[in-house]
Specification:
The chain is of the alpha/beta class. It is built from 7 helices and 14 strands. The strands form 4 sheets. The protein has a 6-stranded mixed beta sheet, sandwiched between helices. The N and C termini lie far apart (about 40 Å).
């Protein structure tokens, strides 16, 4: 019945919604656009009117499709948007991937044209039992066993390119090996916003090889890692190989081709 869909969304969690919808609605030939505003539409200095106008202009383009974010005159893939500013109108940026397009004076300048192959796929089952652990220099291993008991996916935000202190690493290995591979999933990413994780640079990468099964986020956004993990576990995978295949499959530009382990 409709040619496109525009969702007005609060900016604080917009990136999570855009990433989640990228996995819930795949191969859409119609645009699903999320936008919002840093200042309410009732304010004289609001950016809401500009973002709404740009969203409609962008949706009307014949080659606009899939889940994207339009904000601050930029169109961003749904899995690559991240809020980087709390107050300024340029609130969102595309991390580790180019903008899909920019909108200037109602004119769309497109950089990337998405393919239109296949039929739309809707997958609504998400598993919310995903835990994000941000490491600090004083992180203690005492809570790790409890985290494993309560959650199905444990995402570690490591230091630098993905570093993990030895005392924590030993506990993670112990906990991970106490479950079947498909029951608990360990994902390693980085606290650094740009350029992704590269844990092979550290000794931790060499220590993990052959000891436990884990996934590395590489160049994926944190929002994409969290919601993709929810989507994968919502499918109730029967094996580790299935989990790994789904995680490293490129969906809406979430991971660069060849980034998988």
């Amino acid at each position: 019945l409709y040619d496109g869909f525009l969702i007005a969304h609060g900016t604080d969690t917009l990136a999570y919604t855009a990433a989640a919808m990228s996995y819930m609605i795949q191969n859409s030939k119609k645009p699903v656009i999320l936008t919002g505003a840093q200042k309410p539409i009732s304010f004289e200095s609001t950016d809401a009117m500009m973002n709404l106008r740009d969203s409609f202009h962008y949706m009307l383009q014949d080659d606009t499709n899939g889940v994207q974010v339009v904000f601050g005159q930029r169109a961003i893939a749904g899995t690559r948007a991240k809020k980087i500013n709390t107050l300024s109108y340029q609130a969102f940026s595309s991390i580790n991937f180019p903008d899909i397009a920019v909108i200037r004076n109602s004119q769309v300048i497109r950089y990337i044209t998405a393919p239109r192959g296949g039929n739309a796929v809707f997958e609504l089952n998400l598993n919310p039992k995903v835990f994000l652990l941000k490491l600090t220099p004083c992180s203690s291993p005492e809570l790790i066993e409890e985290i494993y008991r309560l959650y199905d996916v444990i995402i570690i935000e490591g230091f630098g390119v993905g570093g993990i202190p030895d005392q924590l690493l030993d506990t993670f290995c112990k906990c991970q090996n106490s479950y079947k591979p498909q029951e608990k999933v360990l994902v390693i990413t980085t606290q650094v916003m740009s350029e992704g994780s590269h844990i092979s640079v550290y000794e931790v990468g060499k220590r993990l090889e052959g000891k436990i099964r884990y996934l590395e986020a590489k160049d994926m956004n944190l929002e994409a890692v969290v919601t993709k993990s929810m989507w994968i576990m919502g499918k109730k995978p029967a094996s580790w190989e299935e989990i790994e295949t789904l995680f490293y499959r490129t969906i809406n530009y979430d991971i660069l081709a060849g980034s998988g382990r």
